C-alpha cells in the first residue's frame, strides 16, 4: 500500500513540475511589450573620439519585448501598461533571424540619416557613398528564397557592379522571365555568389528577382562619427541621434542641464516620423527622470482617420499615457528636428 502511495505521490509531483514548466518556462507564439529603458546617448555616440560632456542628457527610449509564456501572457493582459501581440503581428512572415536583420538595418539607416541631417544643420561637408542594395524581403516564389537572406547586400549582378536600386532595375529590364542571373552579395562580412532564374513578378508581369530592395548607403565625412548600439534595433532613435550629433559637432549645449528624452524616426529633410509604442516609451522616460519628452506630431491621413476615427497622433498618444499613468515629464510635440532645437534654444 505504501509503495502504491509513493508512486502516486511521485506522479503527482512530476505532473505539478510539468505544469509549472508549461505555464512559466515554455514559450508560446506571442510577445509581451512593456516600457523599456531610457539610454543616455553619451554612452553610445562619439565624434572624433569625444563624447558629450554637457550637463543633462539626450536619451533614446525603448520598448521591452519578451516572448510570452502562459504566465506572462496572463500578467501582460492584466497590466494596462503592457500589450500582448502575436508573432505574426510583430514579425509578419519573417523568421526571428530575418526580423533581427531588419531591425539592424533600420538602426543603421537611422544613424546614417541622423548623421546627414546633423551635418546639414551644422553646415559641414560630406559625401553619400552607395555600397550596394539591401535585401529587405524575399518572395516565397523567388528562386533566390533559400539562397539570399534578409540583410544581405547585393554588390554585383552578372559581374556588373550594382551601387543603387536603379542600377539593378535597369539591368533586369534587359532580361526575360526564366533567364538565369548570377548575384554577388555580402553576408556576415563575407562575399558570396549564387545563381537563379528570374520569375514573372505578379505586380508588373515582367521579369524580376522577387525580392524587395533598398539602397545601402554610408556617409563619408572628415568627422569620425561612431555609434555603439549593437544591442538596440529599429529606426525610432533618429530624432535623438540627430540632436546628440548636432550638439557634439557644433559644440553647442542645447540642454541647459536638462534630461531630454524623445523618440521618432528622421528623414533626410529632418522631418520627424511616427513610431510604435510611444505610450510605453514616455513611461520609460519618466522613470529615468526625464524633464522633457519630444514626441512626433505626425499628421494622420484623412482616409485613415475616416476608417479609424479613434486613431491618434504620436503626440496625443504620449499625452494620454502621461495622464493615465500620472507622469511628470513634459511632453513636447515636434514635426522636425528644427522644432526641437528651437524649443531648447528658446528655453535657455
Automatic annotation (TrEMBL):
The chain crosses the membrane at residues 12-32. One of its GO terms (biological process) is proteolysis. The keyword Membrane applies. It catalyses: Hydrolysis of proteins in presence of ATP. One of its GO terms (molecular function) is serine-type endopeptidase activity. The active site is at 236, 281. Residues 230-347 form the Lon proteolytic domain. Keywords: Hydrolase, Membrane, Protease, Serine protease, Transmembrane, Transmembrane helix. It comes from the Bacteria. Its EC number is 3.4.21.53. InterPro entries: Lon_proteolytic, Lon_Prtase, PDZ, PDZ_sf, Ribosomal_Su5_D2-typ_SF, Ribsml_uS5_D2-typ_fold_subgr. Pfam families: Lon_C, PDZ_2. Belongs to the peptidase S16 family. NCBIfam families: SepM_fam_S16. This is endopeptidase La. It comes from Vagococcus carniphilus.
